[in-house]
Amino acid sequence: MVTQTDAYRVAGAPRAAARRRQKKNNIGVFGALSHVALIVWTILVVGPILWTFLASFKTNPEIVGDAPLALPNSFSWASWGRAWEKAHIGRYMLNTVLVVGVSTFFTMLFGSMAAYVLARFRFPGNRLIYYLFVSGLSFPVFLALVPLFFVVRNLGLIDTHTGVILVYIAYSLPFTVFFLTAFFKTLPQSVAEAAMMDGSSHTRTFFQIMVPMARPGLISITIFNILGQWNQYLLPIVLLSGSVEDKWLITQGIANINTNAGYEADWPGLFAALSMAILPMLIVYIVFQRQIQSGLTAGAVK
Amino acid sequence: MRHGDVGGAGRLASNKMRKYGFIFSFLVIPVVLYAIFVISPYAQAFYISLTNWRGISANPQFVGLENFTRLLSDDVFWAAVRHHALLLIAMPLITIAIALFFSFLLNLGGGSKGGRMSGVAGSKFYRVVYFFPQVLAVAVVGVLFQAIYRPDATGVLNGLLGIFHIGEVGWLINTNLALWSIMGVVIWQSVGFYVVLFSAGMSAIPSDVFEAAALDGAGRFRLFFSITLPLIWDTIQVGWVYLGIAAFDCFALVQVLSVDRGGPDNATTVLPLEIWRTAFTFSKFGYASAMGVALFFLTITFAALSLRVTRRERIEL
Amino acid sequence: MTNSAGSPKDITRRQMLRRIGLTALVAGPAGSMLSACATGGGGSDATPTAASSAAATSAANPFGVKADAALEVVIFKGGLGDSYATDVHEPLYKKEFPGATVKHVATQQIAQTLQPRFASGDVPDFIANSGSDLMDNGALQTEGQLLDLTALFEAPSIDDPSKKIKDTLIPGTVESGLIAGKPYILNYVSSGYGLWYNAKLFQEKGWAAPKTFDEFKTLCETIKKAGLTPYAYAGKNASYYQYWMILITAAKVEGNQVLLDIDNLADGAWTKDSVKQSAAAWAEIGKFMDKSYEGLIHTEVQTRQNQDKIAFYPSGSWLENEQKSNTPATFEYAVTPTPSLTSADKMPFEAIRSAAGEPYIIPAKAKNTAGALEYARIMLSKEGAKGFTEKSGSLTVVSGAAEGLSLSPGLKSVNDALTAAGANIVTYSSFENWYKELETELRKQTNSLMFGRISADEFCANMQKKADSVKADSSITKQNRTV
Fold first, then answer.
1. At C197, which CATH number?
2. Neighbouring chains of C at 3+ CB pairs within 8 Å?
3. Count of structural domains, chain A
4. Are C307 and A61 in contact (CB under 8 A)?
5. Which end of chain A, N or C, is more open, meaning fewer C-beta atoms within 10 Å of its C-beta?
6. Is residue A302 very low, low, confident or very high in pLDDT (cuts 50, 70, 90)?
7. Phi then psi for C145, rounded to 5 degrees?
């Protein structure tokens, strides 16, 4: 392919060079305009986040005052102290990392196991189970909320992280199974067959051959699951009640702060808490952005 | 077990047993978890939708399809359905259009340099920054946009407009604008994700395709519409499905941002919000479940349609 | 939650907070709701054992409290704090029973904390059932979980043993806690409702609180010229502050009967002339509001009033305490009754809405119900009530308990207004608790009316339509009240 391209390039070189010159101005205008568009969107994205950080240093009258875009008069960390003390952001963050970490791991394990079997084995009930999982993609969580509470309570798992983790896994399965089934189907049959010929068991074939082969897809779905579970706020609110505040997840914490800010009128505290919730996520993302971006797309673009 | 030790028919049977044992061992945990935590609550919800359960009594009264006939004449329900329709059309269209535009700029906007198509300068930076909103929890985003959309001069957006001497806009209190404002938040949050998604799609296109087209004198617009777009069409369809499913939610943002939760005058209400309110404020669990069932059929219709369109798996087992 | 047995209690500060909680993205009610359902199934294993811990009764110990019996008190730690319990009521109890241990639990999530305990039968002895996640008292009563407080109200007062407690309270207090005809709830805090303004600002500008709607409008014009927003409420989450005003005015025109009719879903209650006139008059005032207030929450609007950007704000007695940290020295809260609408009004200008709120309950299955009753008796003593007002900045239902206290300007203003009103009291509305759907619709229609999207006639017609549909809905248990 390279040679072919090179051939094109050689043959077309003089013509292309001329064309490039001719288009140079054109590109300049276009480039300028596109930069404007890109910068505008950058401001749109960064602006609100930056504003949150700034607002955490403002005073109440400054926030509710008439100059929303003004800088704070003085940089005081008092609101951060209040938010940290009262809002327990650190604890909620840790809880969330724990819950999302464990549940994503098992979601991927169970999800890929089911998807592999559904994708590559013919057995009675295969289609039924597959469609049962896939139909879950379109179930509105709201519909299940009340009965789900009772199911979890009857299992004695209400107000426990175990309960939340199990529910997260179950609710992440439709998406995971759907995409991984498609993914496993695209992997070549021959490798697995060769392994089986060599006497490798089904289980070993799966873990030692298929999983490594499916890695890009697995990473991509893992990231989707982490994002989805991190953002989840309806389920934890139902499953982790107010009597176990020390087990709360970050979204509950934010919701609670917002309520409190509503009647204590502590807006700087609210924004400080928001900043505390935003910062670690941004840092983690920036550190791992390369992996996240490539992982995200590896499975989706096939 | 070493299957080599067993003879002909025995080997076949044992292979079969081994296979089913394996299938069973791999499926049992996920299926059981799924049945307990997903299928059974939904099955119960379907039953509840046929009762007038108020959440307290142990044995709810069976009322047949009464809840569903009531839905037909419920203005608020239909308002919510209309909003989903609008979200379903406008939100993916706008998000995908913006994301395509930016990913084109970031991947191909720089023209060809040294024989390779490249993005505009700084495209890596943009791609990283645009993804920021995606890593924020929706709860955070909702609270944040409260301050952005505040309807008087203290709102961030109105403060910006003030600089250009444009009067204050009631982002969330104007009945014609409110739903669009909320949609704007979803778009704000999503665009970065789709930029990354489409960028990957575009970088997978072999560069000689562009080279050839450029040699034929194709301009940027032709490059985009007749080459890029068709080649990443699959990826766009995937994006459409994600966004479509998101259009049936929007609960958190509407609940936090809108006037009187779903207002003004029902202008922003969505089904999840009505289900929530009907169940937990009015304690009409039967009726709320009926709404849930309706939402279920709406979503599954959309999902079935888009799966049909985007089906790209190998069916052969 | 179900309204199978509604609690005829007024909207209190706590309920207000609950609503605010709902407006934010907090989904607290889910927990409370779901747990409430959970209660529906369980908790029937024990029978009420009210007298299990009884010792001999005496004049000083009317409930026969065992001196060494432990007492567990659960307090909602919200805007009122919990120091009134830890610093006042609990020490008073300890003084009376030095041998008893008092366990103090402070929480913001009453329902989530207590529902499992109700389900299991291991309940605390005394509960401040308040906050964004309070339990549905009607539902608890239906389940047989609440202690009938008749004995409390019939018991001798600590201050004057010749008087029964019920006779030392502001009239209407016991009635406000009735469920199915019996008092199950002690509504402890007394609130007055009206239009709030900055007394210092008004004095400085020479403005006087208006006595009629005509004066009100004229004053609004004047205030507008002075560069202030004459009137505002928070449409985003507190439109019920405004519908209170509409209902108060209707009641002033026609008498409390209109409120009874509305609560009882009487035919045509919402299309009565009094409601129509009131809605029309308030819609006129609505024209003085800035459109943007429909998108603000109550604390945002209240803070703007503190900055003297708004002249009048409709609210209740808790307002001053709520805004304490944002009120500058130049701001002094004062309240005025809503203006009179016509010269033929049934109630005079001085008439004010006043109601008991802040529900306290005793679980029927508590281990030390006698101690809990005694604790409540201490709360209802002058010393207990006075201490509460000092610590929480709110008045109690104990008559004259605030005498001798140096009240904050706002509280003093409420006190004066109540004195001036005498017997002309606008009563509470129960439909807010009984028929949530109707209440939700009223919020929506109130915003529509006040921000000029519908006329007063449409407002009345829309509300009547909703009331009729609630009445026709067989799944909603109907309530009734005659006082």
1. 3.40.190.10
2. A, B
3. 2
4. yes
5. N
6. very low
7. -95, -10
Q: Which domain holds residue C362?
A: 13-191+355-407
What distance in Å separates the CA atoms of residue C40 and residue A199, rounded to the nearest whole number? 58
Instruction: Provide mean pLDDT across the span B12-16.
Output: 74
Say if residues B38 and A173 touch (Cβ distance below 8 Å): yes
Residues of C in contact with A58 (CB under 8 A): none
Please check whether residues A117 and A248 belong to one and the same domain.
yes
In a domain, C370, yes or no: yes
Q: Which range of residues forms the domain containing residue A144?
A: 79-300
Q: Do C444 and B263 make contact, defined as CB atoms within 8 angstroms?
A: yes
pLDDT the model gives residue C29: 30
What are the tens digits of pLDDT across the range B190-225?
A: 999 899 888 888 877 877 777 777 777 777 777 788
ipTM reported for the complex, 2 dp: 0.81
- C5 lies in some domain: no
Q: Tell me, yes or no, whether C380 and C446 share the same domain.
A: no
Cβ atoms of B149 and B257 closer than 8 Å? yes
For residues A85-103, give the mean pLDDT. Answer: 87
Task: Kindly state whether residue C420 falls inside one of the protein's structural domains.
Answer: no
Chain B residue with Cα closest to A291: B128
Residue to substitute from B11, B17, B22, B34, interface A, most A β-carbons within 10 A: B34
Give the pLDDT mean for C189-200.
93
- C361 pLDDT higher than 60: yes
- Phi, psi of C149, rounded to the nearest 5 degrees: -95, 15
What are chain A's partners, defined as 3 or more CB pairs within 8 angstroms?
Answer: B, C
DSSP per residue over C447-469, as a string? HHHHTTSS-HHHHHHHHHHHHHH
Do A113 and A251 fall within a single domain?
A: yes
Identify whether residues C398 and C454 lie together within a single domain.
Answer: no
3-state class percentages of chain B: helix first, strand second, coil last, to nearest 5: 70, 5, 25
- The pLDDT-based confidence of C54 (bands split at 50, 70, 90) is low
Q: Is A263–C299 a contact, with Cβ atoms under 8 angstroms apart?
A: yes
**The whole model's pTM is what?**
0.80
pLDDT in tens, A42-78: 999 999 999 889 888 888 777 766 677 777 777 778 8
Q: Is the domain defined by B66-310 classed in CATH 1.10.3720.10?
A: yes
The residue extents of the domains of chain B are 3-48, 66-310
Number of continuous H segments (helices) and E segments (strands) in chain B: 15, 2
Residue keyed to tokens 């359905």 = B81
Q: How far is B210 from chain A (nearest CA, A)?
A: 11
Q: Are residues A172 and A214 in the same domain?
A: yes
In a domain, C7, yes or no: no
